[in-house]
Amino acid sequence: MTTSGDDRAPAVARALRVLSLLEAAGGETLGVSEMARQLGVARSSLFNVCLALEAEGVIQRVEGGYRLGRRLVELGGAYLRTVDPVQAFYQACSDTPFLHDEICQLAVLDGTDVLYLAAHAGRLPLRMTASIGSRFPASITAVGNALLASLDDEELERRFENPATRPAWTADSVTDLEALINKIRDVRKRGHARDVGEVFTGIRGLAVTVAPQYSGEQAYAVGTSLLEVYCTPHIEQQAIEALSDMATHIANPMNLGRGTAGAGT
């Protein structure tokens, strides 16, 4: 015979349901009677649960009832400090249907290169070339262009002054400094980065940046590589939306509201 969570620890289950109710209330206060009505339990038993939660600081008594307490912020911060962006990336690849079967990357900017921290192979018949620890030129990769979009034009000119930092891997690679700066300007306007055959002929790279959780945190970008022949405007839009969802998941693993990711790839 299986025992439900409510049977094993009814007080704990009710406490969690109280927190869920207050979360759904969106900042509005709820009285014990109203919460008892919604949960279908006796007011007296729920009152004791609320007293215990109040004593721990996870809910706060105010005029009109209760609302969530500051202790939850401390607990949430403690959880966020344990979140590994690489682990979050792989989880997001698994949870994002459109990208589950595609090649995806997580990268950071290092000078004029991007360093790949994680790579998801997907199921497409493409050889995975950007393995973990690989370095690629930021000037021609989607993830690199996404990360470069956070720099101003003067910094781009200084950083890529040396022609060696702008290599040509294919005939479509952008190697001219002015053209590179214009390309990054387009990334800023468009909100995502696009590499059309600049790294590998016939492959389109798309990317968005991951919003930092903390001030001063190193910026990340997530990207995907698609076969150019199949990459219609509709498919590209789907990919960008999926990457933005992934970036939001990595930046906001507790799902505290939905936001938009910045420019990427």
UniProtKB/TrEMBL annotation:
Residues 71-256 form the IclR-ED domain. Residues 9-70 form the HTH iclR-type domain. It holds the Pfam family HTH_IclR. This is HTH-type transcriptional repressor AllR. The keyword Transcription regulation applies. Keywords: DNA-binding, Transcription, Transcription regulation.
